[in-house]
Amino acid sequence: MAGGSILTLATGLSRILISFFPIGILGTFKLVRGVAWLSQDKQVPSASPDAEEFWKMWCDGERGVRLTHEEAASLVNAPAAPNDGLVSPDGRTAYSWPMPKGWRGRGEQEKPDEDDTYAYAKWEKRQESRIHRAFFWLPNLPPASVRYYHELSPAEQGQVDALRRYWSSLQTFKDRLRVARWLVATLVGIPIILLLLVWATGLERVPLTGRWRLILLTADEEDAISTSLEGPNWFKSVINLLTTPEHPAPPIVPLSDWLERVENDDDTRPIGFVGLWPPPSEYPLKPRARAAARLHAALPGGDRESGTEHLELGPPYNIMIMEAPDKNAFSYGFGGKGAGGIVIFTGLLDDILRRGAPPAEPSPPPQPQGIFASLFSGSPPRPIVAPPMPTHEQTLHLAIVIAHEMAHLLLSHHLETLSHQQVLWPSVVGLSMDLVRAFIWPFTLFLGPTVNDALANIGRVGTEELSNRYGHIGFEFKHEFEADFAALRLLTHAGFDPQAAVDNFADSMASLQEIQSEPEPWWSLFKLWSWMRHPTSEERVEAMRVELERWREVERRAEAD
């Protein structure tokens, strides 16, 4: 069964159980009151040493015998006996459990006239139910103790009976309390066990880092998401995500403005890089196997290839340049066949070209012209401005950004946060609000339906607000570090020096609005990422330096061996 299906089952069952919480809370208050009364107000009957010794020897640990429904029915009109007992037709005495004053008030209703058949039958039914719950028989004495019991004086026999009634009822009360606790623990434990099953079926390892993460989407659901974003649908999805009633999406820079030049560019940078090289990862990039799939594969007769259903990781990936002043870039999508890609704003490109750009050469002064030439000539020709030629540092700057965003796609971070937003987070928030309403219901019960309906509406609106504010898809804190580590590997395989990339990082990524705290226009940050916290550039640089040091340590050990 898929993790999402188990979560749906756990959520539905939990909400059914939560609906009984108000009754459970009222019952808990009643039990607490009963325990307090039993420990404070109820006194142990006094007895002589002989009577107490007899009880300890023969009666300690005995429990009262519950009445059957037939026996309870025979006691409806039975005469009362001392000590709140009822005398049955066969001469036995049924005793009541010790209860605080007033607990039996609802059951002891005035007896109606027997001529009123319906009312009398209803009263008998209620009395039978009350007697069945509230009375018990004392068990028979052990046969070996009967002779010693009759040797006691009548007063001591009464003391023994009082001790037996008290301790039997107390033990039964404790048994009922224990059963109630087990019942509550079972009802609470069932959703918890189901939630643990959710974790077990949805857990998987993140490539490269090996972090355990929870994805509550089946392979079919992942395929549907990937298929819905293939081809031109990815571009449409990005435009829809960046479009609001107040602001349209930024215009797209036509492919003819940049793609042809990129494809025809003479890249003289060497492909091979001689220097620090990343060590093999314990968790390489490959189709992601769920924990449940690995369990199936380990069972007798299981498919060893189970877990490879999560298709290709990509590429190819799409790339889109949008005309916007924001110094930002983001990735979006999941899967191969063009179902994922990177969006870059022109503000980022302008900022990269502006940083470290060589000073512009002064234009030559205009040539002097004669009087007649100036009269008959047209406007002076405009100087031809050559397109900017990026330096190696600028190229590395942009490569870091693209590698970082591509790493998010390779590690399927979008899929993880999508699973949390659409499946996990709404269920957790909804259950939490239901639990809060269930706990406060006993206190608001007496305020009437108007107040309770208003509180329910507030809870529903609060749930939607929490989901809208904190349930948006965004990169989590650990995602940024994982993307940085994967980006270092991508840059190294692309021919860049990873150490130079780390040294360049503070001047490149620190300027991106993706990790700045100043508020910017709504579309300066991809709106599905706008409320998520990112680590600081200092934290990320330090983590990457530690990662490079780990590479060096692995290289030194390999050379020593």
From TrEMBL:
| Peptidase M48 domain ranges (all copies) | 315-545
Q: Which InterPro entries match?
A: Mito/Outer_Membr_Metalloprot, Peptidase_M48
**Coiled-coil region(s) at which residues?**
none
Show the stretches that span the lipid bilayer.
Answer: 12-32, 179-200
What keywords are annotated for this sequence in UniProt?
A: Hydrolase, Membrane, Metal-binding, Metalloprotease, Protease, Transmembrane, Transmembrane helix, Zinc
One GO BP on record is: mitochondrial protein processing
What is a single molecular function from GO for this protein?
metal ion binding
Keyword Transmembrane tagged: yes
Name what cofactor the protein needs. Zn(2+)
Q: What is this protein called?
A: Peptidase M48 domain-containing protein
Which source organism? Apiotrichum porosum
Organism placement in taxonomy: Eukaryota, Fungi, Dikarya, Basidiomycota, Agaricomycotina
